Amino acid sequence: MLFFILLAWALPTYSLTVLPLISTAISAPPDTITVVPPSRYHLKTCVVGGGHADKEGLYASGFHIGAGINDVTLEGIEVASIGFLNGTYQQFDYGTPFPWGLNMGGADNYAAWEFALVDTGFGSEGFFFNSSGLQWTETEGGFSGWLACDWWHGAPQLFWKYYFYDYPIPSSCVQVNLMPVAVWEGSEATDCMV
Ligand SMILES: *[C@@H]1O[C@H](CO)[C@@H](O)[C@H](O)[C@H]1NC(C)=O
Ligand SMILES: *[C@@H]1O[C@H](CO)[C@@H](O)[C@H](O)[C@H]1NC(C)=O
Question: In the record, which residues are listed under signal peptide (predicted)?
């Protein structure tokens, strides 16, 4: 294993086809190993650093706020959205003939955290997974993690944190990882890995 890690470090563009679930990053930073998610998955919160048990083990769900627009609430698995990665688009399957994608709002309003939306279309480009779950490579490098906060839909809501404004977060908010949990027929999957 160490050999492969060293190889990945030395040759960042070399494709490690011998490791079934791991390949080197394409658009990700060179010190990051990209993980291939299951073909269809739910996105499950794992609280970073412990605490905030009420934000742990929740699933990303589209909350309709207008025609073709959803906020992302964090709720029980029974309403979890089914996601899949299409290239670098984080898409969702809502059984419609047209696509839905995760759209990273804001970043031009001088705010320290921003909405994550699921809209019609493919959404924002630049998503990938590593062992900390779903990541976003944004051109200016402004993504610095996911926040789960109590907000206005009666369930915790997903936001993303903007690196350049590192203000204190509200006390209901906590940083979470979004781990891909395979959608299996009639069952749910694993515990938090972090
Ligand atoms: C996953 O990627 C993010 C964003 O590039 C990075 O901050 C984090 O350290 C990575 N996690 C691991 C385990 O490499
Ligand atoms: C995946 O993305 C491409 C565009 O990059 C699009 O043409 C294709 O329809 C998408 N697949 C699905 C299942 O939405």
Answer: 1-15
